[in-house]
Amino acid sequence: MIEKNNKKTIRSWAFFDWANSAYNLVITSTIFPAYYTIITTTNEHGDKVTFFGRTYVNTSLSNYALSFAYLIMALALPILSSIADRRGNKKSFMKFFTYMGGLACVGLYFFKLDTLEMSIILFALAAMGYIGGVLFSNSYLPEIATEEHQDRVSAQGFSYGYIGSVLLQLICFLFVLKPEWFGITDASFPPRLSFLLVGVWWIAFSQIPFSVLPNGTPQASKVKTNIIKDGFSELSKVWGQLKQIKKLKGFLVSFFFYSMGVQTIMLAAAGFAEKTLKLGTAKLIAVILIIQLVAIPGAMLMSYLAKKIGNVNVLIMVVLVWIGCCVYGYYITNEYQFYSLAAIVGLIMGGIQSLSRSTYSKYLPVDTQDTTSFFSFYDVTEKLAIVIGLFSFAYIEEITGNIRYSIIALASFFIIGLILLFVLKKIERKEAPKL
Question: The domain containing residue 159 runs over which residues?
Answer without folding.
Answer: 14-214
